[in-house]
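hey so u asked for the seq, here:
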Amino acid sequence: MKRAVSTGCAVFGFASDDTPILVFGGMVEYGKYLSDLYKLNS
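ran it, structure tokens below
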């Protein structure tokens, strides 16, 4: 999916192997976790 806008979240992770940057997971409220994956081209 291109140009998706992420909702605010906490407890997320990210990884980068040169480029791009991958942002994944997150928690939007106590006990509710996301399985989203966003690819950021840098």
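Strands lie at 13-16, 21-24, 27-29, 32-33, 37-40. Residues 1-42 form one domain.
lmk if thats what u needed
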